[in-house]
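Hi P.,

Sorry for the delay on this. The queue was packed all week, but I finally got your sequence through. Input first:
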Amino acid sequence: MTIVETESDGQAISDHVDRLRGQWAREIPDLDTEAMSILGRAKRLSNLVSPSIEATFAAFDLDRGEFDVIASLRRSGPPYKLTPTELYTSLMLSSGGLTHRLDRLEKAGLIRREKAPRDGRSVHVVLTEVGIARAEEAFRADMANELKFLEPLDAQERQMLAGLLRKLIVGIDGSSL
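Then the structure:
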């Protein structure tokens, strides 16, 4: 089933992905490009919003990766403390990639490293009071910014899209791909 959105004047809405699919249909007419209609749009959407999201975090002297670290600590709840292993596992990073981020965040006074009380060889990464405030301010600004991108959709459409994306992601996460 093909769903074609139309504008109020009855004109069909077309986007970048429609143009790409049309070109491929002309060149390789027997190839099914339906996956591009969803996954291609997801990639295009990410590419379109990423610069604005990065700019939002930059206003707080953070890059997206640094924000991810302090956001992980903040949403972990009091005492806002995780081990480096917990952080890099949840962020899907290498330990080396995390170390660089932690160094920068510690230098900025947003986190501190504490020796674990039971094992002096391991450390905990703790969000400082300044880090808590920065994480909250940056997250509030990010959510306000991202909400603007959803304005073309009404509440029901947003809920439907979120549900469909959740279903797709759960299906992909649970598959053996």
